[in-house]
Amino acid sequence: QVQLVESGGGLVQAGGSLRLSCVASGSISSIDAMGWYRQAPGKQRDLVARMTNGGDTNYADSVKGRFTISRDNAKNTVYLQMNSLKPEDTAVYYCNAEGWGTRGYALDAWGQGTLVTVSS
């Protein structure tokens, strides 16, 4: 089994900053990419940012220039630095890991989610 544990969510005023963290553990052979997705009430879950082992990144257009994803590959950890937060960034943020489990199966694991609320 694989577990992803997120932390760092909370309530912040518009214009403020938060840093999310996510650690993956368990039966992991390798992780190819880690990322963050978010889901606002009544909406689908969408990509926020994703980073491969090679350092390639992609961001949602709505967060470019404000959010920065980073990873510590040795620790199977991914971070999301969120600056200049807006009320529309309010959502549950989910961590995702793609790779391979120790028994050779494809890995596509999700965290339990952490709530980010931005007040106006």
Notes on the protein architecture:
- Strands 2, 4, 5, 6, 9, 10 and 11 form a seven-stranded mixed β-sheet that branches.
- The N and C termini lie far apart (40 Å).
- A hairpin with a 4-residue loop joins strand 9 (91-101) and strand 10.
- The chain has 120 residues and is an all-beta fold.
- The chain is 0% helix and 62% strand.
Blueprint of the fold:
Elements: E1 2-7, E2 10-13, E3 18-26, E4 28-39, E5 46-52, E6 57-59, E7 67-72, E8 77-82, E9 91-101, E10 106-110, E11 114-119
Parallel strand pairs: 2-11
Antiparallel strand pairs: 1-3, 3-8, 4-5, 4-9, 5-6, 7-8, 9-10, 9-11
Short structural summary:
Helix content is 0%, strand content 62%.
Q: What class would the helix/strand composition place it in?
A: mainly beta
Strand content: over 45%
**Mean pLDDT metric:** 96
Sum up the overall morphology in one term.
elongated
Give a short account of the largest sheet: 7 strands, mixed
Radius of gyration: 14 Å
**How many runs of DSSP E, i.e. beta strands?**
11
Number of helices: 0
Termini separation comes to 40 Å
Order of helices and strands: EEEEEEEEEEE
Low-confidence stretches: none
| Secondary structure: helix percent | under 10%
